[in-house]
Write a sequence for this structure.
């Protein structure tokens, strides 16, 4: 099956339109076709927002206008919807979109994502991981990790082998001590407590 | 206001010891009581922070400073041992084009207001990164090793420096192995000075203690005993205008070690 450019997602009874990159005209055509087929189903629902990373803002606005005028769907403000969604998703540490990296992240590489990041591999010294949500490394974390980049101090960083050069969680920065530290040899989790980053094993009863 | 002298440490060839030399001269001058900043211009392949053991303190870097993402003071990292020594680290996640020669000139002129010595660590090669590193420099120190390839590159770099108005660079010969020179298997100091025809600032013996101290992130110059540390201290004294005799590498083979060698028939 050909991968479609336009997808619909339901969130709490509302609809979210997810658009993959492509030609503007193609997207309009596909949207028109899909909505035409299923308009009965969508009646009365709110369109929460349109998510599209690759189109410029004015084209997204055009798409929004098109949906409003042709199908009389209720469209919440695009940007507003985006904000609401973000706050909801990343106020805690329990859910959110997640990016998986199945590789070693090496010196000089930056992984940045507006959700959680899971690295299946190592993060070497000199690499930088920045996530709005949590960071989980199934390997050694020896580079710099910044979880909760937009100020979420509830975010966590967990790693199978946690020896980061620097840990930043929300607005708190901590660094590796200068003297050699004993390596715990077990998976650990870092979070902010009383304005400081604390590290503890996440398998305490083993 | 301080002396405000900017010095670029460069070589052309990679792996001859530019970064080690920068860290040791910077630390050595700070030990003499001067206010020093070492600047890493090797954007994308930074090392100076690692050699100085300050990698874990980096929040902002040289690109953040020139782009105005942070104030200059925020970008400067204070050394862990010497109060008057600071590091301006390179960015690791950008490339050399992130900084222009004009921005370097402006940066160095700001640093001049606060520091006695600005020691700039240059990347290998003669491309953009190198051009950035020499842009704000008053003087240049050329690091070379007693190998024909390193000397050839040093010669090329001296020519480029002169073309850019940095005249009379000074020479540092690194990693000399006295016993090899004595056997005639290694170029000696006079050979190299003859070819390059510039003033010799100092010679540094090949010394295991350099590897140890580099891995520890503590420049060797602060240690009492190693000959290489003494060599770097001599260089620093010459920089600040003292007359110091060239290190006699013969003393490397002290009487005691000779006796030990005889005893164990090594």
């Amino acid at each position: 099956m050909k991968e479609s450019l336009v997808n619909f997602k339901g969130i709490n009874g509302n609809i979210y339109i997810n658009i993959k990159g492509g030609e503007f005209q193609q997207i309009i055509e596909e949207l028109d076709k899909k909505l035409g087929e299923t308009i009965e189903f969508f009646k009365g629902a709110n369109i929460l927002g349109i998510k599209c990373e690759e189109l410029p803002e004015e084209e997204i606005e055009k798409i929004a206008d098109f949906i409003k005028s042709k199908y009389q769907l209720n469209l919440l403000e695009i940007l507003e919807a985006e904000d609401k969604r973000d706050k909801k998703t990343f106020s805690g540490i329990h859910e959110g979109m997640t990016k998986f990296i199945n590789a070693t992240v090496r010196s000089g590489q930056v992984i940045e994502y507006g959700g959680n990041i899971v690295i299946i591999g190592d993060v070497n010294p000199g690499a930088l991981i920045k996530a709005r949500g949590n960071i989980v490394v199934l390997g050694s974390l020896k580079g710099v990790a910044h979880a909760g980049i937009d100020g979420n101090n509830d975010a966590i960083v967990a790693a199978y082998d946690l020896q980061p050069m620097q840990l930043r969680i929300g607005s708190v920065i901590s660094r590796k001590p200068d003297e050699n530290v004993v390596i715990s040899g077990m998976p650990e989790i870092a979070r902010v407590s009383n304005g400081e980053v604390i590290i503890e094993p996440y398998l305490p009863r083993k | 206001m301080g002396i405000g002298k900017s010095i670029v440490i460069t070589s052309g060839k990679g792996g001859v010891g530019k970064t080690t030399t920068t860290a040791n001269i910077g630390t050595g001058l700070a030990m003499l009581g001067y206010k020093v900043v070492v600047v890493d211009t090797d954007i994308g392949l930074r090392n100076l922070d690692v050699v100085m053991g300050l990698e874990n303190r980096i929040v902002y870097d040289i690109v953040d400073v020139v782009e105005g993402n942070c104030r200059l003071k925020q970008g400067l990292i204070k050394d862990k041992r010497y109060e008057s020594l600071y590091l301006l680290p390179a960015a690791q996640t950008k490339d050399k084009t992130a900084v222009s020669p004009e921005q370097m000139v402006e940066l160095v002129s700001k640093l001049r207001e606060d520091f006695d010595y600005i020691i700039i660590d240059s990347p290998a090669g003669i491309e953009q990164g190198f051009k950035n590193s020499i842009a704000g420099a008053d003087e240049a120190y050329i690091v070379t090793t007693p190998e024909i390839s390193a000397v050839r590159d040093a010669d090329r770099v001296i020519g480029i420096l002169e073309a850019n108005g940095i005249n009379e660079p000074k020479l540092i010969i690194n990693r000399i192995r006295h016993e090899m020179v004595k056997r005639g298997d290694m170029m000696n100091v006079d050979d190299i000075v003859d070819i390059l025809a510039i003033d010799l600032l100092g010679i540094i013996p090949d010394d295991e203690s350099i590897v140890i101290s580099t891995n520890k992130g503590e420049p060797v110059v602060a240690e009492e005993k190693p000959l290489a540390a003494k060599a770097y201290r001599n260089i620093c004294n010459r920089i600040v205008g003292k007359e110091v005799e060239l290190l006699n590498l013969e003393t490397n083979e002290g009487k005691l070690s000779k006796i030990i060698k005889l005893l164990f028939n090594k």
In short: The domain at 5-264 of chain B is CATH 3.40.50.300 (Rossmann fold).
